[in-house]
Design a protein that fits this description.
Rossmann fold; elongated; 6-stranded mixed sheet; 35% helix; 16 helices; alpha/beta
């Protein structure tokens, strides 16, 4: 017989966890918004439909944030490292958010904003305190390369630009991100017999990072440009491998634009008067060196036609002027390219018309009659106590084109100072590499619009930029390691919460 008046099990209202209690909130919707809620949302009442939409959006945001990697982009330039890094991490399902970027060139900032959107670009990183930079997961930087580049004076850390690395070190030390990706020129590897790079690696390791670095050539990443750069990568727990990337190749014709006007100038007319287009492909145009791959100004009569005897003399001068014996003979420290006296020249080229030939070449501008130069405090100055001699006028970038490219070959490294002097055989004529072709040679998509900056500035930016596919390949490996580390951390936390003393991954 059941007892009456007792309390039934589970009777009465159930207690509700405080966070789950439903509370009324007032919101304001337009008629259109109300109509959309009623039409598209799920639920038996308008209130349930609103809650359903809110929950869906919150779940989306939470999921997005859980997979978002935050970066900072220093010495940003065109943002190539950011683009490549984003590509690599997106392959692993991550969203990449740039929370801070820094650049000082006005035209670089203009191009950057035009591509990424009108976001704030901070200026001189030396003037920005670490606590002014939002927290982030990865630091990206193609720090200034001039101090280590063969195109510069290679002063390294003695150059103020070389100290920009220590700004990177400062930020890494203060912010303690998960990792970094740095890029620099090939010269960094050998600068100061490798000591500069050793200092950099030592400092990065002292911050607690597992560091890997390697000199990598872009030509093996599907680009028609041979561009060797050193990449330095740091991760918190284990260094990633920079070896054995999949190989992909291309040639210039794979990125060429077509039906463009050729250059009709005194230079191109002289060149094509003396050479067929097939013969000039792959040739350098400079008077500084000899060799089969060089065409000289006197070979094409650029400053006036020359005789075969004069051309033979000039080729001999190219080789002889670099010999140290001539400096020893007159008692001067050797310089690469000594002016030689008539007497010295007669020892290897005896011609009764020698002085007449030399003076004619001076008049036309192929030679200069000058004093040898002595080095004083690292600077070459004329030594007026020594006899004058004849020297070749060697202006490295004095010609309209410094190299004629072949569509069936690779392009040598694009350098800011002469990228606009790269000539390209197109049909029966010669034209310059276009901005778009240069972009493609570095792995930028055609959607990157550089028309908003001056042409010379666009060439400068492309000569100083990175190769996007290389960055992307490295970043993908970083993303895999980052994901593994996060999974391991989650498992460890789970095991710890469960009271486990042993964690196996």
């Amino acid at each position: 017989m059941a007892l009456r008046g007792g309390k039934r099990e589970n009777a009465g209202r159930k207690s509700v966890i405080e966070d789950n209690k439903k509370v009324g909130y007032k919101i304001y919707l337009s008629s259109r918004q109300k109509q959309d809620v009623e039409e598209f949302a799920e639920g038996s009442s308008f209130s349930e439909k609103c809650v359903s939409l809110i929950e869906q959006q919150l779940n989306f945001i939470q999921k997005k944030n859980a997979c978002t990697v935050k970066i900072i982009d220093l010495f940003a330039g065109l943002g190539g490292i950011r683009i490549g890094f984003t590509q690599g991490f997106e392959k692993l399902g991550y969203n990449v958010e740039c929370v801070f970027s820094s650049e000082i060139k006005s035209y670089a900032i203009a191009a950057y904003k035009n591509y990424f959107g009108d976001e704030e670009i901070h200026g001189d990183i030396t003037q920005i305190k670490s606590d002014e930079i939002p927290n982030f997961d990865f630091l990206l930087a193609g720090f200034p390369c001039q101090p280590f580049s063969s195109a510069g004076k290679q002063l390294g850390f003695s150059d103020t630009r070389g100290t920009m690395f220590f700004e990177i070190e400062r930020i890494l030390k203060d912010k303690k991100p998960s990792g970094f990706l740095l890029e620099n020129v090939e010269g960094l590897v050998t600068h100061d017999k490798g000591n500069t790079l050793r200092i950099i690696i030592k400092h990065l390791k002292a911050l607690g990072y597992a560091v890997s670095f390697k000199l990598i050539d872009s030509q093996y990443f599907g680009l028609a440009q041979s561009r060797k750069r050193v990449y330095i990568v740091g991760m918190r727990n284990q260094a990633i491998s920079l070896e054995d990337f999949p190989v992909s190749t291309a040639t210039l014709k794979d990125v060429m634009e077509h039906n463009l006007p050729i250059v009709d100038s005194h230079f191109t007319r002289c060149l094509l008067k003396h050479y067929d287009v097939d013969a000039i492909q792959g040739k350098a145009i400079k008077d500084k060196r000899g060799g089969a791959d060089n065409i000289h100004s006197w070979d094409i009569g650029l400053k006036g036609e020359t005789s075969q005897e004069q051309r033979d003399l000039l080729r001999l001068l190219l080789r002889q002027r670099r010999k140290k014996q001539w400096a020893d003979e007159i008692g001067i420290k050797w310089m690469d390219g000594m002016p030689l006296t008539v007497g010295q020249i007669r020892t290897f080229y005896d011609n009764p018309k020698l002085e007449e030939m030399l003076n004619d070449l001076v008049k036309k501008g192929y030679l200069v009659f000058e004093y040898p130069r002595e080095q004083i405090d690292g600077v070459r100055v004329p030594d007026f106590t020594k006899p004058k001699g004849y020297n070749i006028v060697t202006g490295k970038l004095s010609f309209e084109f410094s190299r004629i490219l072949s569509p069936d070959d690779l392009v040598p490294t694009l350098v800011a100072m002469d990228v606009d002097k790269m000539g390209l055989v197109d049909g029966n004529g010669i034209r310059r590499l276009t901005i778009r072709e240069c972009q493609r040679l570095c792995g930028y998509g055609d959607d990157y619009d550089l028309s908003i900056v001056k042409e010379k500035d666009a060439y400068d930016l492309l000569g100083n930029t990175v190769c996007v596919p290389v960055i992307s390949a490295i970043a993908e490996r970083m993303a895999k390691k980052y994901k593994e580390d996060n999974i391991a951390s989650s498992l460890y936390l789970s095991a710890t919460l469960k009271g486990s003393n042993v964690l196996e991954v």
